Amino acid sequence: xxxxxxxxxxxxxxxxxxxxxxxxxxxxxxxxxxxxxxxxxxxxxxxxxxxxxxxxxxxxxxxxxxxxxxxxxxxxxxxxxxxxxxxxxxxxxxxxxxxxxxxxxxxxxxxxxxxxxxxxxxxxxxxxxxxxxxxxxxxxxxxxxxxxxxxxxxxxxxxxxxxxxxxxxxxxxxxxxxxxxxxxxxxxxxxxxxxxxxxxxxxxxxxxxxxxxxxxxxxx
Length: 220
Hints:
Peroxidase, domain 1; 220 residues; 8 helices
């Protein structure tokens, strides 16, 4: 039997400002429905949270809150243990929410949602729910996160060329992109592109590997 665990101590140093990128602020949808639904426990809770946030004109505000909670889970072992403890009760959740409100301006929808998760013994899904809510917001916002990897740091003009090429693709009509540029000298040249659902390898290293495979066929 799991025992009750005190709420993790939060202080202002945990509430570090972080950039959400150039994300359009949308607070509600006409029908308050998410752009997609997923029949999993985290998916269903993310759907309910999206609808509730829209009804309260707080889609973006809750998006910020969920991003923070995802970062907190990623970087705080005490918060991870707190969410995994089935013995967490009303007193501990209120203490935790009080700590959140002291460190940042969290929306009342977020605060109540955390209470509901604890009441239903679903707090252990907070990380997945935060991720799925973020994806729902990005889908509705027609926003796609893309990671571009190059062998050397691209210039500002080259980064703009990449952005223009993505926007010029007819399949990307109406989409907004949040692009993260990274450097990996191992790819030798060219580019690699990651989206949430796709990987495209246009690197020189991949071409060298394919050539080596073809040569190996003759050797064998």
